[in-house]
Amino acid sequence: MDLTRPDGTPLRVLVVDDEVNIAELVSMALRYEGWEVRTAHTGSQAVAAARELRPDAVVLDVMLPDFDGLEVLRRMRAAQPDLPVVFLTARDAVEDRIAGLTAGGDDYVTKPFSLEELVARLRALMRRSGAHQVATSSVLVVGDLELDEDSHEVRRDGRDIALTATEFELLRYLMRNPRRVLSKAQILDRVWNYDFGGQANVVELYISYLRKKIDAGREPMIHTMRGAGYVLKPVSA
């Protein structure tokens, strides 16, 4: 079940963190959920973005270079009183400060955090605030390639393809982002949950495994973009 706004359009989430890498990583995970995402790296940028976007939820770092997350929230809630927020806090934040942050029914995660946990908490907050759940097809289709997320069956041109669990997760990520170039770092984080750097050769290895199963004897769908990453796209007619 996917979450949407009451009118059926994608949920809007504002991600606020002065660390650009973290903001981009979180944004990538939220776009993977099908949500519309905007980022900001300072308190003033965040307030301006919220005024323009009118987000359904905010991921908000407590420590920002100009003013802190509590002040950002106060200004946002002047316009949107019930805006749900998940705070990002340092592990050494004091207990009473955390209690103050979450007194309004909001939630928090401590750095370093799991993207899956952050997404789960955001989903729970938005569900409570009235986001609608809609049934969605479990089948991803790109060209003549089909992947069923529930049954884990994969077919190309009607023929079954057997994949290992890791190959399946890699293909699912590529198919959820068709025609979009995905870097090795992005793939590592989403499929293997590794931080940036190291182990990039495991991506090359599994891409080669996938190619042998998906593209063997057919027009290729998985392409290498030299120096940038990999992209999956349907075969041109």
Structure at a glance:
The protein has 237 residues and is of the alpha/beta class.
Task: Count helical runs.
Answer: 8
Strand order of the largest sheet: 3-2-4-5-6
Average the pLDDT over all residues and give the rounded result.
Answer: 83
Query: In which range does the helix fraction lie?
Result: 25-40%
In angstroms, what is the radius of gyration?
A: 20 Å
Question: Strand share of the residues?
Answer: 15-25%
- Estimate the global geometry from the Cα principal axes: elongated
Write down the secondary-structure element order: EEHEHEHEHEHEEEEEHHHEE
What does this structure look like?
The structure is a single chain. This protein is of the alpha/beta class. Helices cover 39% and strands 22% of the residues. It has 8 helices and 13 strands. The strands form 4 sheets. Strands 3-2-4-5-6 form a 5-stranded parallel beta sheet, sandwiched between helices. The longest helix has 15 residues, at 200-214. Residues 132-136 have low confidence and may be disordered.
Q: Secondary-structure map with pairings?
A:
Blueprint: E1 2-4, E2 12-16, H1 20-32, E3 36-40, H2 43-53, E4 57-61, H3 69-79, E5 85-89, H4 95-102, E6 107-110, H5 115-128, E7 132-134, E8 139-142, E9 145-148, E10 154-156, E11 159-161, H6 165-176, H7 184-192, H8 200-214, E12 222-225, E13 229-232
Helix pairs in contact: 2-3, 6-7, 6-8, 7-8
